[in-house]
Amino acid sequence: MSTTAAAPPDAAPLSPAAAPPAHPPAFAPLKGRELVLGTLALSLATFMNVLDTSIANVSIPAISGDMGVSPAQGTWVITSFAVANAISVPLTGWLTQRFGQVRLFTMSVLLFVVASWLCGLAPNIELLIAFRVLQGLVAGPMIPLSQTLLLASYPPAKAGMAMAMWGMTVLVAPVAGPLLGGWITDNISWPWIFYINVPVGIFAAALTWSIYHKRDPGPRRVPLDVIGLVLLVLFVGAMQIMIDKGKELDWFQSGEIITLAVVSTVSFLFFLAWELTDKHPIVDLRLFARRNFLMGTMSLSIAYGLFFGNVVLLPLWLQQYMGYTATWAGLATAPVGLLAIVLSPWVGKNVSRIDPRKLATVAFVGFGAVLWMRSHFNTQADFTTILIPTLLQGAAMAFFFIPLQAIVFSGLRPDQMPSAAGLSNFVRITAGAVGTSLFTTLWESRAALHHAQLSEAINDGSAAAVGTIAQFMASGMSREQALFTINRSLDQQAYTLAVTDLFYLSAALFFALVGVIWLSRPTRGAAGGGGGAH
Questions:
Q1: pLDDT confidence of residue 266
Q2: Of 1, 56, 185, 461, whose Cβ has the fewest other Cβ atoms within 10 Å?
Q3: In a domain, 47, yes or no
Q4: Segments of the chain with pLDDT less than 50
C-alpha cells in the first residue's frame, strides 16, 4: 500500500488506498530536515481536512440566518460534505493507481483549497451546499494518503510513533474546530471559516510536492467500476436527500420522498448484486462474510452515527435555546478531545496486548454514561454542568477508534486491507451523515410533541397561566406580547426536553452496542489505526 518496502504490514488498514503495482519502487525513509518538514506538511493537510468536519457545527445558526433558511436546512452544510466524502473514499484506491499517490494527494489539497474559497463566496444556501459537496469529494483521498505517505517517511521501528503523531493531529482538530469556528463567526464572519483553509492548504501542498514528488511510483491504467460507482452515488445520495427533506415534505405523504425512497432502495439492491459479481468491484462486499469485519464495522458505524449526531445537536441547542453565542458554544464543546489526546497513546500501545473488545467496551460504556448525564440537562443547566460530560467524553473517544479498527481488520490478508479500509470508512462516514440528519429531524419532531403537551396547560381555565399573563400585562405588555413570551418559554422547554430524549436514547443504544461487539471473535495483535478518527 505504501511506496516503501519499509512500511510495516500492520500499517495497511490505516488507508483505503489500493494495493500498489506488483513491483513498486522502494524508497528509503526520510531523514533530518526533510522528515520534519514532510511530517509538518502532511499533518497540516490532515488538520485542515478534519477541522472542516467540526468548524461549521457552531456556525450553522449564523449561516442559516444569513441565508434565510432554517437551522435544520442549514445542517445540509455538514451532511453534504459528509456524504460526498463517503462516496469519494472508496475511489481512493483507483485514483491512487490512476494518478500516483503524491500527485493525487497534492491535487486533492489544492482542489480542497479552491472548494473552500468557493464556499466562502457562496451567495445562497444552494451554492454553498454544492461547493461543500465538491469539497467533500476532493477531500476523500487526503486522510488515507496522508497516512500512507507518513508511514513511508519513517523506518519500520518508528511507524507507531508516526501514527501517534498523526493521531494527535486528528484529535486536536475537533478541539480547535468549535473554538475557532465560534470565534470567527462572532468576531469576523462565517465565510472566514472556509477562507482560512486557503493559505494553509497552499503551503501544505507546496511543501508536500517539494519533498515527496520524487517518491511517487507513478500512474498506471486500472479498470474503474463505473456502474458500481453510479449505483453507489444514486443509493447514498437519494437516501440522504430523503432523510434531510422528509420532515419538510411530510415524509411519505410526499411523492418526492416516495420517489427518493424507491430510487435509493432499488439502486441499493442493484448495487449489492453488481458488486458481488463484478471482477473489479468498487467495494468488496464479500468482506461482510467475516464475522469480525461485520461486527466491528457495524459497531463502529452505529456508534459514529450516534456520536456525530450528538456532536451536531449540542451546539444547535445551546445557541438556539440556551442563549449561547457561537464562541461560548465552541468553548462548551471543544474540550471533547483533551482526554482523548492524553489517553490515545496508551490505548495504541496496548491494543495488541489487551483484548480490543474490552477496550471498545470501555468506549461504549463511557459514551453511554456521558449521554445519560446529558439526558438530565434542563433549561437551568449552567456552563460547568454542560462542560463536565464533554470533558469525560474525551476518555471514551480514546478507547473508540483504535480498538474497533483492530477488530475490523483482524485476520485479514495484507491484500484485503485496502478494500477493508475503504469499505469500513465508507460505511462509517455515511452513518455519520445519516446520524446528523436523523437527529435533527427527530429533535424537531419530539419538540413539536412536547410543545403540544405543554401548550395544553395554557388556557383560560388555568389559574397559573392566567396569573402569568396578568403579570406580563401589568408590566406593560399587550396580551399578544405576553402570549409570545410564554410561547418562547414553551419552545425552550420543548426543545430541551426533546434534546434530552435523544441523549437518553443514544445512551441506551451505546450500552446495547457492548453486546454487539462481544459477538466478534477474540483477537490479539490485530492492527489498529487512527484512520477512523476522521
A1: 94
A2: 461
A3: yes
A4: 1-24, 525-534
Instruction: Using alpha carbons, list the distances in angstroms from residue 343 to 4, 10, 18.
Output: 30, 21, 31
- At which residue does the C-alpha cell 482523548 appear? 340
The CATH number given to whatever domain includes residue 165 is 1.20.1250.20
Q: What are phi and psi of 281, to 5 degrees?
A: -65, 150
Write out the residue range of the structural domain in which residue 47 sits.
9-224+282-447+502-533
**Residues 114, 41 within the same domain:** yes
Would 315 be classed as within a structural domain? yes
Cα–Cα distance, 127 to 17 (Å, whole number): 31
**What confidence score (pLDDT) does residue 476 get?**
73
Angle, vertex CA 214, rays to CA 208 and CA 219, nearest 5 = 95
Nearest alpha carbon to residue 168 among 343, 371, 358, 404: 343
Residue 38: closest CA among 171, 212, 218:
212
Q: Is the CB of residue 388 less than 8 Å from the CB of residue 373?
A: yes
Give the pLDDT confidence score for residue 171 in this predicted structure: 62
What SS3 state is found at 479?
helix
DSSP state of 17: P
Instruction: Tell me if 494 is assigned to some domain.
Output: no
Structural domain count of the chain: 2
Residue pointed to by grid coordinates 453565542 = 325
Whether residue 114 is found in the same domain as residue 31: yes
Q: Are 151 and 219 contained in the same domain?
A: yes
Question: pTM for the full model?
Answer: 0.75
Quick: pLDDT tens for 338-379.
788 788 778 877 877 888 899 999 999 999 999 999 999 998
The answer to whether position 187 is within a domain reads yes
Q: Which of 237, 261, 281 is the last residue of a domain?
A: 281
Q: Are 490 and 451 in contact (CB under 8 A)?
A: yes
DSSP for 502-527, please give it.
HHHHHHHHHHHHHHHHTTSPP-SS--
As given in the structure block, the three cell numbers for residue 71 are 437551522
Distance, CA of 398 to CA of 477 (rounded, Å): 53
Contact 5, 102 (CB under 8 A): no
DSSP class per residue in 65-84: HHHT--HHHHTHHHHHHHHH
